[in-house]
Amino acid sequence: MPRRCCHRWGRYRVRAQVESSLGVTDIFYLPVKPVAGFNPGECVEIYDFEIEAFSLVHYQGLTTDEASERLKLSKTTFWRILEQARFKLAKALIEHKPIRVVSSKQESGGSSP
């Protein structure tokens, strides 16, 4: 009897065009103050719609159902975006990497998980 396939959930990118109301037009980095030995290639890239999803649930206290309705997304797509934001923020904090905030309307130069 053959073995069952084991599918691993890898990192995923949201392919649908998601609009954000945050109004991020330029790329900027957190922390804002200059850091010695800062290399822009070693940062965690987070999109404005990921920050908005994180803010709706964790800052404004909405449920995932309410937040997904507000952003006009399906619940599963909203959940994926939220999990992606949590993963990226945790990675930046644990690995002491700067956070690069990018507008969803422009292409990113490099890819960071």
From TrEMBL:
Similarity-based family: Belongs to the UPF0251 family.
Superkingdom as given in the UniProt entry: Archaea
Record-linked PANTHER family: PTHR37478, UPF0251 PROTEIN TK0562
Protein name (record): DUF134 domain-containing protein
Gene3D superfamilies named among the record's database cross-references: Winged helix-like DNA-binding domain superfamily/Winged helix DNA-binding domain (1.10.10.10)
Organism taxonomic ancestry: Archaea, Thermoproteota, Thermoprotei, Desulfurococcales, Desulfurococcaceae
